[in-house]
Amino acid sequence: MNKGILLVLSGYLMWGCFPLYWALLNHVNPSEVLIHRMLWAVPVLFFLVHFKSSWKNNFKDSISSKKELVFLFITAILITINWGGYIYAVNLGRVVEASMGYFLSPVINMIGGYIFFQERISKLKQLAVFFATVGALYYVFSGDSFPWLGFLVGFTFSAYGIARKAMASSAVPGLYIETLILLPFLLIFSLWFYINYDVAFFNIDISTDILLFLAGAVTVVPLALFTAGTKLLPLTTVGILFLITPTIQFLIGYYLQNEPVNSNQLIGFVGVWAGLIIYSYALVKNK
Question: For 151-186, what is each residue's pLDDT tens digit?
């Protein structure tokens, strides 16, 4: 299997199971979960970057470039909003809505690939994109109200992927710099939060402490796989394969967490998967 596809698929499968992990922390304030998610990501990334010489060199090059730091600051904000928005969605029992937003992500990626990277695709892939686009849009807009939270999650994730593909920073070093850039703001917010709210860390049980502590690793691994794979693949491929993630999240929300889904959303869901099947066939056919 193509290395880029393998990396991206691994990250997508992990992301698909995210609702199961974050639901275990539903008794914790979403802001505190986000704090631990970002805070514990720093030592994990530090170890990874300094473990591999190429990542260490890329880190040094990126952090010495003012232009790259400006872009990394922007992508850091995007991914923080994405992280916090998804935790909030799971906490509110809106996993299906979040999956709606992620179904939009491939559409945005395809548009981004066409506009910013002049990516062109075959007629068969165009047909796949058509089915996926129509299915995703129908899935999102057939609900009784506009899924603003899902749209926020999907848009910030897509914008993050597009921006990172255009940057010189490698996957892991770039993510490390992003967390370091936001670390001072995170520490200030953490201090404010711990003064004004009851905290769960070290105050509930050992399982909660472990889940919060592991939030950094759980966050870093799939995102690193995704950004590494994105560097090796066209955004159209990244976009269509990403449909695996919201599909898993949708199934978890619908079957395991008993969230409501109407028939119109299911029709959109079928359209999305039709696009995924056609595109997968196109990828195999080109081998």
Answer: 899 889 889 988 888 888 887 899 999 999 999 999
The runs of H, that is alpha helices, within the chain are 3-16, 18-23, 30-39, 41-51, 53-63, 66-91, 95-117, 123-141, 148-165, 171-196, 206-213, 215-232, 235-241, 244-251, 263-285
Q: What percent of the chain has pLDDT over 70?
A: 96
Angle 102-221-88 (CA atoms, 0-180°, nearest 5)? 45
pLDDT digits (tens, 9 = 90+) for 41-81: 999 999 989 988 988 999 999 999 999 999 999 999 999 99
Strand, helix or coil for residue 15: helix
Is 145:97 a contact under the CB 8 Å cutoff?
no
- The answer to whether 165 and 230 have CB atoms below 8 angstroms apart is yes
Residue indicated by tokens 């889940």: 211
Q: Measure the CA angle with vertex 14, ends 81 and 90; round to 5°.
A: 45
The rounded distance, in Å, linking the Cα atoms of 147 and 143 is: 8
Residue 207 vs residues 1, 17, 28, 107, 203: alpha-carbon distances, Å: 38, 19, 12, 39, 11
Cα separation of 273 and 250, whole Å?
12
CA distances from 145 to 134, 148, 149, 153 (A): 18, 9, 11, 16
Instruction: State pLDDT tens for residues 122-149.
Output: 788 788 878 888 887 887 777 777 778 8
